[in-house]
Amino acid sequence: MRWDFAILKKLAACLFLSSGLLGCHGDTAPSETTAYYEFFVEDDTLEMKDGVHLAVTYYRPVAKQPGETFPVIMEKVPYRKDDFFTLGDYEYGAYFAKRGYVVARVDVRGTGGSGGGIPVSEYSEAEISDAEELVAQLSRKNWSNGNVGMYGISWSAFNSLMTAHRKPPALKAIIAAHGSTDLFYNDVHYIDGALHIDVYAHQIDTDNSMPQSPGYRIDEEYFRNRFDREPWIFTWLRQQQDGDFWRKESLKFKTPLEVPVYLIGGLLDGYRDFVTEVSETAKAPVIAEIGPWNHAWPEYGVPGPNYEWRAKALRWWDHWLKGIDNGILDEPGRMAFMRTGHAPATDLATLPGYWRCDGQWPVDGSSTRRLYPQTKRQLGDAPSAQGGVDRLRYRAGAGMAAGGWWGEQTGDMAADDAHSLVYDSAPLAEALEIMGTPQVRLRVAADAPFYQWTVRLEDVAPDGQVSLISGAAINPSQRFSRLEPEALIPGEPTTLSTPIHFTTWRFNPGHRIRLAVSNAQFPMIWPSPTPGSTALFPGADTWLDLPVVPTENETSPSCVLPAPEPSDRAPFGKELKNNGPVFQSIRNERTGDSTFTTASDIAWTLRGDTYRSAERYQWDVNDDAPANARFQGERRNVFTISGNEIDLSTLARIESDATYFHITFTKTLRQNGGLVREKTWADHIPRRYQ
Fold first, then answer.
1. Which residue, 358, 383, 407, sits at the end of a domain?
2. Dist. CA 288–CA 218, nearest whole Å
3. What is the block-wise mean pLDDT of the chain (690 residues), using blocks of 10 residues?
4. What residue numbers bound the domain in which 32 lies?
5. Are residue 384 and residue 350 in the same domain, yes or no?
6. Residues 6 or more apart from 327 whose CB is under 8 A from it?
7. Is 489 a domain residue?
């Protein structure tokens, strides 16, 4: 979620009415040729076929002439539009409403202000079927012109893609930022097929258990539909292998998309591969953009440079929802930010580089350069002439320098590389730029039936500093089939292959290309259970392929992007504090103990009510006892509404041994200081190749 409002501007001339409608004028001056619409904000519900009412907030333009109708842009997520996301939602609703679009923000059934029970999991049949029904109903509103778009970041990118695959007639186009086509391999539960315990799992299970807004009633219906529902984290841990559960709504295993789609990704986001996957297979027009930032929209994502994506989004919607021939499909449809190399850092506001606006991917003149790990830890253009073997002791707590997933800014990778096999090229005589998905093949063996491998592509500067470019994990049990995993045969060599996540980078003259190979990526990947060692065999079956592209003149970029525009600020609330997330990693090389923590604390007000949310998460493992890894999460939401304090806290613990995951999850609800209900779920779930 996003709570940074530094770039927002204050709204002028807004009047909050007792009817619950908000009439507003933005204070951003219109251009000479554009007169913005006044708009109002209205809360309502839409009834689904089974009688469940879904809560919707409309940002609706005021018609300038009798009978004027507008297209509808829908976003549907469980992230509680009436409290957690109210302030953030406003800036996007206001932007498009002022420009002649109705924005419909809907809470998923069983969450936020919507009725019904919490679904069985994310992207359930009920959720996607509801989306189809919502598209149809919105197209029939008397203020609608009959054309509907869907859009969103993360969850709402996922369900926009899934709904588009079903092709509801009124859905004309979508915009998806940071989505996925493969829910097992490219989501936050099993990164690259390996178990990942993300803070999101605890956050969503906590927030889904909050009472229904705006009344926040605590009654038997609330307990039945929300508080007493088993947390989703149990469901996800019971689905440790790929199969029907994950593939039902995954676009990777469906026919190509036939609804026009504008795709946005980030080089520091864990979901970035979906941009190329959809753009390569879609049967409808596609715009695809990948910038330098993290899990965020392009106008504020960190690091920059940023641009105003909403200006292009408006032209996209104008073309598909208003029928305006504005030439957007005649422009280059592929854009990526070429990072031109930088020292490791965790706090860069802007990265060095330039935008490449190409008509296609791969770009003209692309080639593949194959490099081979060689003896003496070198990376060369030919395989070693002599056989050999490089052995690696498994240290379960290694990997914290890479962070919590394949994203975010990272510091020097030397600490991780100290517990990895590293292979370096000779210093480059001239610059080398890559853009795409590197490929890796490893010939390996292990002394136990299950380990995990990770590969990292890195840049080694002349002064020895190591920058992470991209990486990937490998679950070897899936080497022959994701659907039918097989254990390793101890001592028997096998071949592992994987793509490294999409990236761009310039290796500058004098720098070295590094391939780092490890058996641990803690806490990103849950540690495998057996201490021991693995072997890598340099030779013809072990290599790295780099997607090389011609270097462009960055002083004369192929495209110039508009600067971010100020956004309208909600006049009925404000952020009070935003601390975090703060990350900390501690590794004791003497004892082999590793601990990774993250914590945050936020607060805000809405219409005189106050809201606070705080959380802390910790992962622990010891190199000598990797089976006994641990996770603990704590989250507390305190909402004070009209003097009524609702206090929900949750505690989750996951501990593993060689054969089981032991998980407990406790919800505790207090009202005005008194205990209302406490409930604990517990299970022992067998480990299955994780």
1. 358
2. 45
3. 28 25 36 75 98 98 97 98 97 98 98 97 97 98 98 98 98 98 96 97 97 97 98 98 97 97 97 96 97 96 96 97 95 94 96 91 94 94 88 97 93 97 98 97 97 98 98 98 97 98 98 98 98 96 97 76 93 94 95 97 97 98 98 98 97 98 98 98 98
4. 8-193+242-358
5. no
6. none
7. yes
Q: Is residue 559 part of a domain?
A: no
Q: In Å, what is the CA distance from 293 to each residue of 88, 272, 309, 343, 470? A: 18, 10, 13, 16, 14
Query: What's the token pair of residue 36?
Result: 């913005």
Same domain, residue pair 248 and 309: yes
Verify cis geometry, omega within 30 degrees of 0, for the bond prior to 383.
no
**Eight-state DSSP code of residue 63:** P
Contacts of 53 (CB under 8 A, 6+ apart): 45, 46, 47, 114, 115
Integer Cα distance of 194 and 242 in angstroms: 11
Q: Please, which contacts does 196-201 make with residues 24 or more away whose CB atoms are closer than 8 Å?
A: 196/405, 196/524, 196/525, 196/526, 197/523, 197/526, 197/619, 197/631, 197/654, 198/404, 198/405, 199/404, 199/598, 199/615, 199/617, 199/633, 201/232, 201/233, 201/236, 201/652
List the CATH number of the domain containing 516.
2.60.120.260
Look up residue 143 and give its two tokens.
């203020």
Same domain, 301 and 428: no
pTM: 0.94
Last residue of some domain: 358, 378, 399?
358
In degrees and rounded to multiples of 5, residue 209 shows phi and psi of: -90, 0
Residues 392, 352 share a domain: no
Give the span between the Cα atoms of 91 and 5, in whole angstroms: 10
Tokens 């063996």 belong to residue: 445
- Tell me, yes or no, whether 308 lies in a domain: yes
Residue 583 and residue 631 in one domain: yes
Q: Are residues 442 and 294 in the same domain?
A: no
State whether 251 and 322 are in the same domain.
Answer: yes
* CATH code for the domain of 23: 3.40.50.1820
Q: Is residue 305 within a helix (H) or strand (E), and if so which, with residue range?
A: none
Is residue 363 helix, strand or coil?
A: coil
Contacts for 527 with CB less than 8 Å, ≥ 6 apart: 396, 397, 520, 621, 626, 627, 629
683: tokens are: 């299970």
Residues 600, 483 share a domain:
no
Number of structural domains (the chain) is 3
In sequence order, what are the beta bridge partners of 575?
604
DSSP string, 548-617: EEPPP-TTS-S---PPPPPEEEPTTEEEEEEEEEEEEEEEETTTTEEEEEEEEEEEEEETTEEEEEEEEE
Select from 94, 102, 73, 82 the least CA-distant residue to 24. Answer: 94
Structural domain includes residue 259: yes
